Amino acid sequence: MIAVITGDIINSQHADTEVWITRLKNLLENWGSSPLAWEIYRGDEFQFKCSIDEVFWRFLAIKSLIRSQENLDVRIAIGIGEENFSSEKITESNGTAYVNSGRLLNDLKSDGHTVSIKTSNEAVDRDLNILLKWSSKDFDSWTVATAEIIHEMIMNRDITQEDLAKKFAISQSSVSQRLKRANYELIVETNQYFRKKISEL
Q1: Higher pLDDT, 73 or 42
Q2: What angle do CA 105, 20, 191 make, to 5 degrees?
Q3: What's the pTM?
Q4: Of the residues 3, 37, 85, 194, which has the fewest C-beta atoms closer than 10 A?
Q5: What is the C-alpha separation between 4 and 97, in angstroms, rounded?
Q6: What's the rounded Cα separation, in Å, for the pair 134 and 189?
Q7: So where are the chain's domains?
Q8: Which CATH number fits domain 2-199: 3.30.70, 2.60.40, 3.40.50, 1.20.58?
Q9: How would DSSP label each residue in 137-167?
């Protein structure tokens, strides 16, 4: 089983494309090579695959990266399933993970939510999607400053608050306040729960 994320940038037409697309490419290159593992297509849509263990953390890395740019957000559909055919281009690969993710993105565009998951198990889908709807109330309201801090924490799990304070030229207490406002400890717990539920599939 693999995880496939299909996403699109919200408000991309109101932002400097070169800035966000360069940052997104740099992020995705950390996780694999294009176009085998990821691809950006149709201007502001993208797709990539990863292990099911990593998918929640990967989703948050993308979310925080895009939210750290003024006026931008991202819609993300997570599909969990099989990969029956692996092409040299991810957008030509196939299997239930791809089908689940692609169809789900179309549903998200019509229902107004920014993240959802589809697996082969309706009960797991129900539990995780309720969790995602609640947590997205936080994620969707991150300020640029909060998103930047969260992104650094996700990408550098050993980074200290002192390191973050130096990086952003703010006090350690400001770092601590931003992490509290973002409910970072709850995010870590949510990731653990997410991994446990998916491992039961």
Answers
A1: 73
A2: 55
A3: 0.94
A4: 85
A5: 6
A6: 14
A7: 2-199
A8: 3.30.70
A9: HHHTT--HHHHHHHHHHHH-TT--HHHHHHH
